[in-house]
């Protein structure tokens, strides 16, 4: 649960080949780009949150939940405008969980795959005590499962009736990546 | 493990009695072990003794679902080398869902574990 106390300036991570995506902290000035995906019911479908309905709501959410997050990065194209974000949550002292969201217009182009690959590599460098990075994906969310498989995550199994999401009981697929695993 | 009766009594007072669901496994009304069910995820769900574990688990399961009406899923995490424990769960009707690598941190060591689950429906209650 601890933030890295030496991290005063979160680094900008650029992908290779250069120019595809970069990762940087979110700011309040990203609110309009944030609303593009946050208001989209298709994007929200497998997320724990309901679509955003106003700019005020978006500003509040960014202030309360996004800017305060221990590890969250905007996924940006060349113009430095976010098309989504990726985050890492602590599970316990040795385990982290990864999550990501992307505006629908940018689905199917490999951007999420690239972001996950970058963050996975980065996280193990930043936090060498981490033994396992995991992801839980709704059993019906094929796109997100493909992202993790393309990066090289191991699909470990389906956890039945694992979680209640927006009032429904859902099966979730568990994926993991260990520091010793190879990237695809 | 405990080295004195006093330590054991403290454990019983502080951990067992307030526990959300823990029952003594008894023979002739004397306790020989315990079986516990934790809410939420994370900890090992079931401890057992030799030879009677299957019986204890199969008695406990319907009681748990009855006592805790909001529970839909019971899960257990078993280390990969613990074949006896896996057999107990399988005999009771738990389904093995997968191998979780480096999932469990116990006594300073990190282990791979199998995750098993038993669902109120359809595992315990047959579908109409």
UniProtKB/TrEMBL annotation, chain A:
GO MF annotations in UniProt: acyltransferase activity, transferring groups other than amino-acyl groups
Any coiled-coil regions, as ranges: none
Domain N-acetyltransferase: 21-179
Pfam families documented for this protein: Acetyltransf_3
Origin superkingdom: Eukaryota
This protein's name: N-acetyltransferase domain-containing protein
Organism: Brassica campestris (Field mustard)
From TrEMBL, chain B:
Family matches, as Gene3D superfamilies: 3.40.630.30
Matches recorded under PANTHER family: ACYL-COA N-ACYLTRANSFERASES (NAT) SUPERFAMILY PROTEIN (PTHR46067), N-ACETYLTRANSFERASE DOMAIN-CONTAINING PROTEIN (PTHR46067:SF16)
Pfam family, one: Acetyltransf_3
Organism: Brassica campestris
Domain N-acetyltransferase stretches: 47-95
Protein name: N-acetyltransferase domain-containing protein
Source superkingdom: Eukaryota
Gene Ontology MF terms in the entry: acyltransferase activity, transferring groups other than amino-acyl groups
């Amino acid at each position: 649960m601890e933030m890295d106390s030496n991290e005063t300036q979160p680094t900008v991570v650029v992908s290779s080949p250069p120019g595809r995506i970069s990762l940087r902290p979110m700011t309040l000035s990203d609110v309009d780009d944030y609303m593009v995906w946050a208001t989209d019911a298709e994007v929200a479908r497998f997320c724990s949150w309901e679509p955003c309905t106003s700019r005020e709501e978006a500003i509040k959410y960014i202030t309360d939940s996004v800017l305060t997050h221990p590890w969250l990065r905007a996924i940006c194209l060349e113009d430095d405008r976010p098309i989504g974000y990726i985050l890492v949550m602590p599970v316990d002292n040795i385990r982290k969980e990864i999550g990501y969201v992307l505006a629908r217009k940018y689905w199917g182009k490999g951007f999420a795959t690239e972001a996950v690959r970058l963050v996975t590599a980065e996280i193990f460098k930043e936090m060498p005590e981490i033994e396992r990075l995991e992801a839980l994906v709704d059993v019906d969310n094929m796109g997100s499962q493909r992202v993790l498989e393309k990066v090289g995550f191991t699909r470990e199994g389906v956890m039945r009736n694992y979680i209640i999401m927006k009032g429904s009981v859902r099966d979730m697929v568990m994926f993991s990546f260990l520091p010793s695993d190879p990237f695809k | 493990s405990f080295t004195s009766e006093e330590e054991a009594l403290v454990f019983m007072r502080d951990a067992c009695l307030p526990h959300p669901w823990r029952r003594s496994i008894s023979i002739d009304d004397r306790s020989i072990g315990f079986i516990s069910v934790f809410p939420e995820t994370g900890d090992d769900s079931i401890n057992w003794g030799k030879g009677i574990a299957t019986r204890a688990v199969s008695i406990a399961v319907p009681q748990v679902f009855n006592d805790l009406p909001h529970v839909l899923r019971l899960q257990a995490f078993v280390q990969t080398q613990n074949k006896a424990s896996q057999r107990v769960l399988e005999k009771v009707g738990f389904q093995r869902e997968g191998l979780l690598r480096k999932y469990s941190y116990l006594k300073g060591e990190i282990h791979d574990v199998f995750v098993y689950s038993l669902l109120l429906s359809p595992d315990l209650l047959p579908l109409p």
